[in-house]
Amino acid sequence: MRSKIVAGNWKMNKNLAETEVLLAELTAKLPDTKAEVMVAPTFVNLAAAVDKLKSSTIEVIAQNMHFAESGAYTGEISANMLLGIGIDTVIIGHSERRAYFGETDEILSKKVAAALANNMRVMFCFGEELEDRKSENHFKVVESQLKNALFSLDASSWSKIILAYEPVWAIGTGETASPEQAQEMHAFIRNTITNAYDSGIANNVSILYGGSVKPNNAVEIFSKPDVDGGLIGGAALVADDFIAIIKAIS
Ligand SMILES: O=C(CO)COP(=O)(O)O
């Protein structure tokens, strides 16, 4: 069901002590909100975060997982391990996984399938690079990322999918897509899903924007009708900034 979501992707930041400090600040300051609030600390701190947030409405989610159930995959983490510590939502397809860890659409479609087979929710990330936008290929690129990883799913699986449009040129750069650019792409995404499935599925999926969302631009971005919230990187590491972004959800 379409809902407002603000999620913090902590990436490779915060050791255990720092994680506990940030979570304590967030729980102390969390405002009343209609948004689902999520945080994604690193793997080693997930269990501690789940424990720390057990009486909070903030959900702990994972930044990644492997597609295999178990086996000889040194350094990897399975769906079953996440579920075992109470985590049932996972980010898949972040541009940093694609760029630095060779995750192709084919690998990502296997990860999505594995998460869904385990009844997990998937926050699927995608978005064009600067070159794609400059050459006006951004719609084509986004359409193919969605098609290759998601469009062979059964219609019923879409209730478990959250989308996060993150233009690569806006991640960690301080350069945000304008609210109009975000709205234009989010509307395109809904239209693409309508064509592949139907408008019911397209209108029920939450589509988050990610890429340099900050307290000073969140209200405007979140006010757009097809933007259902944000996936926040840098600003999610500072309690007051993340709280201000949560408050930007109306
Ligand atoms: O990659 C992001 C969230 O997944 C966005 O990162 P920034 O908010 O730091 O640009």
Automatic annotation (TrEMBL):
Binding-site residues for substrate, renumbered to this chain: 9-11, 172, 212, 233-234
Top EC class, one word: isomerase
InterPro entries for the chain: Aldolase_TIM, TIM_sf, TrioseP_Isoase_bac/euk, Triosephosphate_isomerase, Triosephosphate_isomerase_AS
Subcellular localization(s) per the UniProt record: Cytoplasm
CDD domains reported in the protein's UniProt record: TIM
Keyword Cytoplasm (UniProt): yes
Coiled-coil stretches: none
Any Pfam family hit: TIM
Keywords for this protein: Cytoplasm, Gluconeogenesis, Glycolysis, Isomerase
GO MF term list: triose-phosphate isomerase activity
Membrane-spanning segments: none
Main localization (coarse): cytoplasm
Active site: 94 (electrophile), 166 (proton acceptor)
Enzyme Commission identifier(s): 5.3.1.1
Catalysis: reaction(s): D-glyceraldehyde 3-phosphate = dihydroxyacetone phosphate
Pathway recorded for this protein: Carbohydrate degradation; glycolysis; D-glyceraldehyde 3-phosphate from glycerone phosphate: step 1/1; Carbohydrate biosynthesis; gluconeogenesis
Function field: Involved in the gluconeogenesis. Catalyzes stereospecifically the conversion of dihydroxyacetone phosphate (DHAP) to D-glyceraldehyde-3-phosphate (G3P).
The family this protein is said to belong to: Belongs to the triosephosphate isomerase family.
Assembly notes: Homodimer.
Name of the protein in its database record: Triosephosphate isomerase
Gene source species: Arenibacter arenosicollis
Upper taxonomic lineage: Bacteria, Pseudomonadati, Bacteroidota, Flavobacteriia, Flavobacteriales
Gene: tpiA
